[in-house]
Structure formats: C-alpha cells, structure tokens
Amino acid sequence: MILVVFCILSVLAGLLSSAAGLGPWQSALVFLGAFLGLNLLYVIFWYCVAGTVDRKKPLEKIRPIYSDGCISVAGWLCAWAGVRTAVNGAEKLPQEGRFLLVCNHRSMFDPIVTEYVLRKYRLAFITKPSNLEIPGISKLAVGSGFLAIDRENDREALKTILKAADFLKKDLCNMAVYPEGTRSKTGELGPFHAGSFKIAQRGNVPVVIAAIRGTEEVHRHFPFRPTRVALDILDVIPAERVKAMSTQELSAYSRELIERDLEGAA
Q1: Do 123 and 173 meet the contact criterion of CB atoms below 8 Å apart?
Q2: Is 55 among the domain residues?
C-alpha cells in the first residue's frame, strides 16, 4: 500500500513538471527521483523512530508507534519483494485474548510476511539474536516485543521463554515462535523443540498452529517475478487443553498438522 501511495505522489510530481514545461525525459526523471526520494525519507523516518527505543529498559508497555512501524516496514518490504499473500483459515484465529502462534520456517521472509498479513493481531516473534542486532530498524522489533533466544544455551533460552510467557500474561502482545529453531534449507520440516510450547502453558493462552509456504521462492523470483505465499491457519488448541497436554504432545500434534498441510499442498 505504501508503495502505491509513493507511486501516485511521484506520478503527480511528474505531471506537474510536465505542465511546467519540462520534456518527457525530464518528467520521467522527476518521477523516478520523487519515488526514490520518498522511499528514502520513509526509511529515515522509521530509522529515527527506532532510535528512541531503549533496549536496556525492561519492556512494560508497547507503544503503538513501534508496532505500527514494524507492520508498516513489513508491508513495505513485501511490496518491494513482490510478495502476494493468501491467508487461509483466518476465521479460526482467537478474536479475544492473547495466543502463541507456531509455524514452520522456510525463509527470512516468514516473519515479515506473517507480521504484515496478521497485522490486526500485533505479533511479536522469538528470533535468533543476530536478527535483533541489525542497526536501526531492528530496534522497532525490540520495542514491539520481539525477543532473542539463544538455543545453544538452555539457561538463556529458558529466560526468553519465561519472558515471552510474561508478555502474554501482561497482555502486551501475541507471541510467535518457530519450533524448528532455524529455517529449513531443503523445504523439509525439521524436528521441533518442544520447549517452545512452554510459552503457551506458562502464559495460559491458546496455541495457534500455522503453516507457511512460498517464502523460500522470494529470493529466486526477485526482482522480475512476484511470489505467491500461502499462510494456512490449521488449528487452535484452547488454553485448557494446552495446560492438560505435555510439551511433547503439543509439539508432536503441531508438527503432524503442519507436515500434513505442506505435503497436501506439494
């Protein structure tokens, strides 16, 4: 949407320059300069907003401008990458209260696409530390509740799980996690880390099971072809059932549903 707005404004700039007596090529250059300039100003704006995030301060409240910024930048990146998304089963998503979303992981675009298409639900993702060390814009993610997890250190990983559960209990945001722990390079579904489901148990929230496909094609298609991405909402396990099941049972059930969905779409 934001690129459409930039395009319209740039076309207007080109038309005005043409009306002012500039030739076709000069008007085309005005259009291009306006379009690139607007995109640059957009990046600078969110970079400055991100600079106000204090990473050393405990997150007690999520300011809307940070979550809005994450959603806006995610949509902007999807537009530039030519991503076309279809969400199936969205009616299953909880309309009240918080939840934990679990999904398979195929590409760095998975959280970007999911963040944007499920923008109504204000998702915050658990991700590897390096993703939250990117200068500038990544601070918006921190301000929106994104958390880094060190899967090589069980003690530190548990701290992240407990913090995510605390965010859910405090009603700060919905959380999302990739139980595989890393993106699949082959497209095959990897083993799940059952500990991820402790977030829902400790936060006393439902588990939303989702499957994503198509994001692994974005880098192959860019910049000449659009990429179709499908996000399927497969099931929602109520909080009471989440409490009654073990993390191993939750992990096995979720993985089975996702694997079946991916195989059925192949």
Answers
A1: yes
A2: no
